[in-house]
Write a structure and sequence with these properties.
Elements (H helix, E strand, L loop, with lengths): L2 H42 L3 H14 L4 H41 L2 E4 L6 E4 L13 E6 L5 E8 L6 E6 L2 E4 L10 E4 L2 E6 L1 H13 L5 E6 L2 E7 L2 H48 L1
Antiparallel strand pairs: 1-2, 3-4, 4-8, 5-6, 5-9, 7-8, 9-10
Helix pairs in contact: 1-2, 1-3, 2-3, 3-5, 4-5
Length: 279
């Protein structure tokens, strides 16, 4: 093909390319405008999450449609404000539910004064003089709402882990090695304290299943001893675990609410800035 013919075809093709480019651009603008119109309608109907989803679609699908994106940016803070207000209301409802649950559950507990730190135990497990001297598992709640378990067994065999079988399932604590403090001999019993992260699965399984439970004391893979957990001890762990869970949820919900309130303040500042710019 001669240079003259090639040049002629190139010149003829330029308007066609320009037309196609302009046509695609116009189509993108129309699609973006349709999304914006839908977003404005959702905002008017207080469907704030859907509004934000539509605005995100405009940003992601049509990044070059600047004019429409600017209009979308102007309504985003209002949609954010509405979505956050709804989320705060949901959080308040969940907080109220868990406060009621925690208050109801805590009535099953009694406070034990201790020179080092007071703690709470279930009334079901409170009919013994010392939990350290009674073989088994004893649930406690610390003043800060943390759940933990005291495991006590007669004999000097240094078990480090407890496993619980109930409801056809097994839960196991982390290992706590003998250290003279959390794993120690007290009189003729070995006593181990398992803190929340180490015994959560045991507390959960004993709360979920109101069935006979077998406790297995282990040192590594070696089984040291097994026995049936008494009903009062199972109930005691269930009471303390569920109470601690309710108060922990309240704590997390308060943190979530504080975070949302900061986001709301920022959103309202953006709304104020938007109207200030318009003026």
């Amino acid at each position: 093909m001669s240079n003259a013919v090639t040049k002629a075809l190139f010149i003829i093709g330029l308007p066609l390319i320009s037309y196609i480019s302009t046509s695609c651009s116009d189509d993108n603008v129309k699609r973006a405008e349709n999304l914006l119109s839908s977003a404005e309608e959702s905002l008017a109907n207080h469907d704030f999450n859907h509004t934000l989803s539509l605005l995100d679609s405009i940003d992601h699908a049509y990044p070059k449609v600047i004019d429409v994106r600017k209009k979308a940016m102007s309504i985003r803070p209002k949609a954010m404000e509405g979505a956050i207000i709804n989320k705060i209301a949901e959080t308040d409802s969940m907080l109220a539910i868990n406060l009621i649950a925690g208050d109801s559950l805590s009535r099953n507990l009694i406070k034990i004064d201790n020179p080092i730190e007071p703690y709470f135990i279930s009334q079901a497990d409170a009919n013994i003089k010392s939990q350290y001297n009674v073989e088994g598992l004893h649930g406690r709640v610390a003043p800060d709402g943390m759940f933990y378990i005291i495991a006590s067994a007669s004999g000097s065999a240094p078990f480090t882990t407890i496993a619980v079988e109930t409801g056809g399932l097994t839960a196991e604590t982390s290992a706590v090695n003998p250290d003279g403090e959390r794993n120690r001999m007290l009189d003729k019993n070995r006593v181990i304290t398992y803190i929340a992260g180490e015994c959560d699965s045991v507390g959960r399984i004993l709360s979920d299943y109101n069935t006979p439970a077998t406790v297995i004391l282990k040192n590594g893979d070696k089984e040291i001893k097994r026995f049936t957990l008494s009903e009062s001890q199972r109930e005691g762990i269930s009471d303390t675990y569920l109470t601690a869970q309710a108060f922990m949820k309240c704590h997390l919900l308060r943190i979530e609410k504080a975070k949302l309130e900061k986001q709301l303040s920022l959103s309202r500042q953006q709304i104020a800035d938007t109207y200030s710019t318009k003026d």
